[in-house]
Amino acid sequence: MLGFLNQGELSLSRRRREQLLFLMDNGIYVVTILLFIAFIFLAPYFFTTRNLVNVLISASLAGIVTAGYTVAILAGQIDTSTQGVLAVATVTTALLFEEVGLSLPLTVILALGAGIAAGLFNGVIVVNGRIVAFVATLATSGVLLAISLFLSGGQTITIAREGLQEVVFIRLFGIPSSVWIMFMCYIVGWVMLTQTKLGAHIYATGADYRAALLSGVPVNRVIRVALVISALTAALTAILVTARAKQSAMFGLAIAGSVDFVTALTAVLLGGFSLFGGVGRIERNLVAVLFLTILGNGLQLMDVATGVILIVRGFALVFAVILSVLRARMT
Amino acid sequence: MSDQVILETVDVDKSFGAVHAVRSVSWKVYRGRVNALVGDNGAGKSTLIKLISGALQPNDGGFRIRGQETRIGGPAGAFGHGIAAVYQDLALVEGRDVVMNMFLGSELTRGPGQIFLDHKGMLQQAHEVLDDIHARIPNVREMVRNLSGGQRQAVAVGRALIRGGEIIIMDEPTAALGVEQTQEVLQLIDTLREQGKTIILISHNIQQVFEIADYISVMFHGELIGTRQRDEATEAEVVAMIMGRRSP
Amino acid sequence: MASDVGTNRVGSAMTGQVGRERRKRIVQFLLDNGLFIAFVLELILFAVAAPDLFIRSRTLEAILRLSGPAGIVLASYTITLISGQIDLSTAQVGGMASLMFAAVFQLLAWPLGVALALTVVLTIAVGLLSSYLIQQGIPSFVSTLAVGVVSGGIGYLIINLTKQPGMIRLVRPPLRDIANFEVFNVPFVIPLMFIAYAIGWVVLNQTRFGAHIYALGGNPAAAALNGINAVRIARIVLVINAVITGMAGILIAGRQLAAQPGVEGLGQSLTAALFAGVALSGGSGKIERTLIGLLFLSTLTIGLGILNVSAPVRQLINGLAFVIAILLDSIRQQLATR
Ligand SMILES: Nc1ncnc2c1ncn2[C@@H]1O[C@H](COP(=O)(O)OP(=O)(O)OP(=O)(O)O)[C@@H](O)[C@H]1O
Ligand SMILES: [Mg+2]
């Protein structure tokens, strides 16, 4: 359905297939290291503590979205509502903390709640409306963006009150808090996916929806949960981005190096996940996220035009998708 | 045997990765006859006929059609040789009407440069063909989605005839049908034979095969292990062959 | 399917069946004609809510003007959808094309024909890229998503290279006058839109190519088995769609006197088409109906503007319209396969 053509199996000799798969599985590590070394020489200020911490924070933010996004992809749900969820959560955070004056924990809980609500909304449209996720979430994203616009009146909300931004810059053993949070997300995600029944159900639903349904997996609940998790991590990211910038943020495809579902999708695909659910290893996504962040950061430091960075982003996605399809056709 | 061979596969071979689906098959198909192909699930029947209809390309071997060595380039090439397949899933487009399905891929055109569809011509010809095979389809503008199993089969066969099909391949045409509709399809096959068409029929139903076929060929694990004339064979013998027992 | 009607059901179950049949027919009728009803209701509602502002020839003209470029795109977008491909790069491709055109025509001050030719070449390249990816087995929505990001990037790059502040002003005649260019007192984009639709209708309903487009969208495997070249069709459809989107992008830029990376007003194609009953999964739909879908949405935009509804609320209503459109498609799909 939906625009498939030519999905024949690729015939390769076994040895070549194994070589190619090895390359696809491990190439990302090599490429990331090479890129890092290249930027040390090419990009001024790249190899400074200040910038590396920056890269680490950016990567952790993109990494958090990607963690939840991975879960959705594994369940076979391509979530395109990340933009909308981010927008609602950032506005909620800024409004509650700055204008309403709620305490930090309460703000965080309510902003995460907004994310959960958005995820549930997605779930209703996907499951009850029986609509493919990527279209359904494309639609809900529009609604969520409009809601965020409505809440903010289209204005950036600046946060003057102290106590929010500091959270991002807290360091534990010299490592910024957002990085810790990201690691937490991945550990929780890893445990959930590999050690729990829910995880098994998520894999099963993504790998073969019908088979899972027929063998009694509560597929609808699994899809709902996966979409909520995806939205939840997006909301968490939005809170951190808002805190870091001290204002409600603008998220958009057009902004280079921003956190969005294109980055998440690219990372997930580079991580070896199938676009159609069911396979993949969550830890490889971390490297992919790091790769994409370094790429964006390095190019920016080299003063490369925004347009070029965007084009590179687009081709990174193209490349990732081609890899993913190639992998699917080989196995 | 006095019957004439119209099509012959010569050491045709096909693998899907590790699966060797068709192993060096040399098979004769007789003109104006119903040539049945039987065998267990996965024996390679569908693969063999897809090679003949151009839907798949062999890894090795070739074809002799009407005595001539030929390549079958693709579905279009097969049409050119008068071979038309009615696939197991019928290859119908559910959301289009009977006429457009019958002319799928070989639409009639008219006007300058033949750019416009000849709706009237297609309608008329569809009626003619369906009448010829005694198909009961009240409204040829009905979407295929709303047709019964037997009617669908008729549409797919009608398409094969419109293609100028001399050799008509039918892959398990009655598999999904009830008693009455099965009878309809068998009738259809009979009609086709009377009109001088060559039929290749895949079926799992041995009784049915004995009822309608002139020749019965058996495949086992990708190999063609024998062909029998209907009148000379017994059901028990054919069943034994299906289980892989090679006959002398 | 049909055979289970005859099995041993008791009488009450039979009447239940009949009731369900009738309900199904009513739902089907509403799905087929609901758009017309909704459109009429919409007109009445706005007419009642703001009689003196809404019932004016200027309002009608505004609705048609707004529909013009979007309608030209929608004609080819509908064909793309029917062929089973979904194009998510419309806004970026339109923006990229308008920037390309503006850079050559406005900033370099080259002749109109050259600027148009260069833009066409660029959009053809973009369409070819999308279709190449689809040919590799990548679903169209991801292919065009990626191509959309690339096109957006090219648009930004043009802005970067020309050192413009986020957009390129487009005021050189005769383009400046294009938006106001009239034939027999009607803005010329309106007849242009109708021509696009007429061509689209003929292609879909009266040519082999159109028959193949329907077949490909309805059942790609069947199309291939019957000798239809899916790759070629997808390529032609996507390239034409990209080129037409680019031209519409220029028209919109002309109307706004500025070219920007993302074009607003083209994003509603999907909603309009789904409202009109074009299947999201391809293979069915009538092109002439999408025009009503578009007029419905344009009227909504203009009407809400007249009623002074704030921008976020308008956007919310548009977002909900999209949600409703995909729900309608889903219901239609379920009804068709039941
Ligand atoms: N496209 C394909 N890719 C990989 N393997 C295939 C493909 N088509 C067929 N096979 C394999 O080739 C073998 C022969 O399949 P084929 O469909 O020809 O059998 P068949 O005799 O028609 O069986 P059935 O009676 O079940 O229809 C099977 O093992 C099948 O799994
Ligand atoms: Mg078979």
Give a written overview of the molecule:
The complex is a heterotrimer of chains A (331), B (248) and C (338). Chain A is mainly α and 331 residues long. Chain A contains 13 helices and two strands. The longest helix of chain A is centred in the first third of the chain and has 29 residues. Chain B has a domain of 168 residues: 3-Layer(aba) Sandwich (Rossmann fold), CATH 3.40.50. Chain B is built from eight helices and twelve strands. A six-stranded mixed beta sheet of chain B has the order 6-9-10-3-11-12, sandwiched between helices. In chain B, strands 2-1-4-5 form a four-stranded antiparallel beta sheet, with helices on one face. A two-stranded antiparallel sheet of chain C has the order 1-4. Helix content of chain C is 75%, strand content 2%. In chain C, helix 4 packs across helix 11 and helix 12 crosses helix 13. Chain C has one domain: ABC transporter involved in vitamin B12 uptake, BtuC, CATH 1.10.3470. With 338 residues, chain C is mainly α. Chain C contains 14 helices and four strands. The chains are: A mainly alpha (331), B alpha/beta (248), C mainly alpha (338). At the A-C interface, helix 5 and helix 13 of A face helix 5, helix 6, helix 11 and helix 14 of C. Bound molecules: adenosine-5'-triphosphate and magnesium ion. Adenosine-5'-triphosphate binds next to strand 2 and helix 1 of chain B.
Overall strand count of chain B: 12
| CATH fold assignment of the domain at 5-93 and 164-242 in chain B | Rossmann fold
Give the C-alpha Rg of chain C: 22 Å
Using only CA atoms, what is the Rg of chain B?
18 Å
Greatest interface and its participating residue counts: A-C, 51 and 58 residues
End-to-end C-alpha gap of chain B: 18 Å
Q: What would the average pLDDT of chain C be, to the nearest integer?
A: 87
| Discrete helix count of chain B | 8
Overall domain count of chain C: 1
> What is CATH's topology name of chain C?
ABC transporter involved in vitamin B12 uptake, BtuC
CATH architectural designation of chain C: Orthogonal Bundle
In the CATH hierarchy, the architecture of the domain at 5-93 and 164-242 in chain B is: 3-Layer(aba) Sandwich
End-to-end CA span of chain C: 8 Å
* Top-tier CATH class of chain C: Mainly Alpha
Average of pLDDT of chain B = 89
What is the count of helical runs of chain C? 14
Number of strands of chain C: 4
